[in-house]
Design brief:
Helix content: 25-40%
Structural class: alpha/beta
Bound molecules: pyridoxal-5'-phosphate
Number of strands: 21
CATH class of the largest domain: Alpha Beta
Low-confidence stretches: none
Number of domains: 2
Oligomer: single chain
Shape: globular
Largest sheet: 9 strands, mixed
Length: about 425
């Protein structure tokens, strides 16, 4: 395992940890903590690997923006030619605010509201990824009421095991997502019979943090089987969308590089005579995860011998589960590094936040030489960090900085406490609009 897993733009200059050549401790001092810092160059390199491998093919990379939906991140990908995979009307509003092209948006999600469908029709999204026959009927009604036809792809559950954490595995039977493979042809017939719908594609998304190529090839085969059956029934399918889910290196995982994955999928597509089809991808984590770090300051050290806590040493930092929930939610392992290495004997620490939950930990049993006031970096924090953050314990959400061409740009201000309860009403307050 390398000292700095996964983060291509992260390096040490002597004792000093740098992202894109910028010392992280200095950024933490300048912008305060907790602070997310992203390398735009790392994001562009990640999407470039997909795009290069797809060159000469009809394709669209739709960044799954729930991984990190900050406007400057979206702007970065929009300018790189990406579309977006969205899961709510709110995400669509963000795409538009960031200058993204709605004609390159695919709308996923297992429970879309009619109002969100109307909003997406109005904006002119490229495709609705529909997950049930009931949703087909609702979308049909929405489209007819607007005197339009909604472009649809059916999200099929290919029933393949992505070999990942149960909470982020989505392509197996018994999971809420998608239309069962066995029901898919009937669902396509139904879709084709509805005058408000236009069948344009097929999609799947089998899970997240996938570290093997095989599940993707299995899923593609299952999709192509259906494409052949559906087209034999007289319903043309234009594009094949293989979803997202490619993993990143948090510690010692070795997922395939995006270009290797793409090349193998293209080879399978060609081998089965489907090379002419447009191929869509919906990567989230693999475009942003390793491009970001979360910086946090050490507040207090509680060595176990001091207070009878069973010998555990606690390093209490100013970031918490509300800033980065992955360890608490999935027991995810994230590498933690001192921003400046100390020339001292390290000890073993549980790195925890100040939130009043025992689940509020960021890393357990980490060997670190630390003192209060030191800055730590939680690596691979660019995906599912800020977007899953909350205000639990009335903690303002962190600020975000993006490194762009050697410059540190503030892309999100630290939240102000007053804004956290600005929409709340005291019991004796007049009702809004009264
Ligand atoms: C979450 C999600 C993605 C992206 O997953 P990653 O693991 O971040 O690549 C893509 N498509 C759909 C439908 C999703 O729900």
């Amino acid at each position: 395992m390398s000292a700095l897993p996964g983060a291509p733009n992260l390096a040490r200059a002597g004792a000093v940890l740098q992202l894109d050549g910028q010392p992280l401790a200095a950024l933490a001092q300048a912008f305060g903590t907790p602070l997310f810092v992203y390398s735009q160059a790392a994001m562009l390199a990640a999407v470039g690997a997909y795009q290069r491998a797809l060159q000469g093919r009809r394709h669209l990379v739709c960044y799954a923006m729930k991984a990190n939906s900050s406007l400057a991140v979206l702007q970065t990908f929009a300018r790189a030619g990406c579309g977006f995979d969205i899961v709510s009307g709110g995400e669509l509003a963000r795409v538009l605010a960031a200058g993204g092209d709605p004609a390159r948006v695919v709308f996923s999600g297992v429970g879309k509201r009619p109002a969100e469908m109307r909003q997406a029709m109005q904006a002119g999204v490229r495709c609705f990824n529909v997950e049930s026959t009931a949703e087909l009927d609702t979308l049909n009604a929405v489209a007819l009421a607007m005197d339009r036809r909604a472009p649809v792809s059916l999200r099929v559950n290919p029933d393949v095991d992505a070999g990942t954490h149960p909470y982020i595995s989505t392509g197996l039977k018994g999971n809420k997502f998608g239309i069962a493979h066995a029901q898919a042809v009937a669902a396509y017939r139904h879709a084709a019979s509805l005058p408000g719908l236009q069948v344009v594609g097929i999609d799947c998304h089998i899970g997240s943090q996938i570290t093997q190529v095989a599940p993707y090839l299995d899923a593609l085969d299952r999709l192509l089987d259906l494409v052949e059956q559906v087209e034999a029934a007289g319903i043309p399918i234009h594009h094949v969308d293989v979803g997202g889910g490619l993993g990143i290196t948090y510690s010692d995982e070795s997922p395939p590089a995006a270009d290797v994955l793409v090349a193998q999928l293209l080879q399978r597509l060609d081998a089965r005579g489907h090379g002419h089809r447009e191929l869509l991808f919906e990567p989230g984590r693999s475009l942003v995860g390793n491009a970001g770090v979360l910086l946090t300051e050490v507040l207090v050290l509680k060595p176990g011998a001091d207070d009878g806590s069973g010998g555990k040493n606690f390093c209490i930092v100013d970031a918490a589960m509300n800033d980065m929930v992955r360890p608490a939610m999935y027991e995810a392992w994230m590498q933690i590094e001192a921003c400046v290495l100390r020339d001292a004997v390290p000890a073993t620490w549980d790195v925890v936040g100040p939130v009043c939950e025992s689940g509020d930990w960021l890393g357990r049993e980490r060997v670190l030489a630390v003192q209060p006031g030191d800055m730590l970096a939680i690596l691979s924090a660019g995906a599912y960090g800020m977007t899953m953050s909350s205000n639990y314990n009335t903690r303002p959400r962190a600020a975000e900085v993006m490194l762009v061409d050697g410059q540190a740009r503030l892309i999100r201000q630290r939240e102000a406490v007053a804004s956290l309860f600005a929409g709340e009403l005291l019991l004796d307050a007049p009702e809004p609009g009264a």
